[in-house]
């Protein structure tokens, strides 16, 4: 069962929605406030961060776009799956999951802030990241 918000899950999850958008397409659509499917999966976030020339700058860029689109996303009550490539796990705090991808550790906290753990490999961030 998925909740309204950013549902962070691994690629192996059997409940991944059929409707998918790349992270780039998703950011473009929310910046223009284009209509989105009600339930959809966003792919490619971890890959984008892994290959980013400046990971910290890329994280800030994504976070800023999500914050700017908060009212738009909140009004739509979207259920968004953020499908991460790699191994999603917790080290010191369940509120700050990490992803192990191609031998590197990628933090999700700079983008989503503190999240709520719903299951072993399922975390939830609100649509309004400032709340």
Sheet with the most strands: spatial strand order: 2-3-4-1-9-8
Annotation, overall tally of beta strands? 9
- Give the mean pLDDT: 94
* Oligomeric state of shown chains: single chain
Radius of gyration: 13 Å
Strand content: 25-35%
Overall number of domains: 1
Helicity range: 25-40%
Shape: globular
The low-confidence parts are: none
What is the straight-line distance between the termini? 23 Å
**H and E string:** EEHEHHHEEEEHEE
Determine the number of helices (DSSP H or I, runs of at least 4 residues).
Answer: 5
Helix-and-strand structural type: alpha/beta
For the sheet with most strands, the description reads: 6 strands, mixed
Give structural notes:
- The protein has one domain (5-10, 21-118).
- Helices cover 31% and strands 30% of the residues.
- It has 5 helices and 9 strands, in the order ββαβαααββββαββ.
- It has helices at 23-31, 45-51, 55-68, 70-76, 109-112; strands at 5-10, 20-22, 39-43, 79-84, 87-89, 98-101, 104-107, 116-119, 122-125.
- The strands form 2 sheets. A 6-stranded mixed sheet has the order 2-3-4-1-9-8.
- The radius of gyration is 13 Å and the shape is globular.
- The mean pLDDT is 94.
Which tags fit this structure?
six-stranded mixed β-sheet, alpha/beta, 131 residues, three-stranded antiparallel β-sheet
Describe the secondary structure blueprint for this structure.
Elements: E1 5-10, E2 20-22, H1 23-31, E3 39-43, H2 45-51, H3 55-68, H4 70-76, E4 79-84, E5 87-89, E6 98-101, E7 104-107, H5 109-112, E8 116-119, E9 122-125
Parallel strand pairs: 1-4, 2-3, 3-4
Antiparallel strand pairs: 1-9, 5-6, 6-7, 8-9
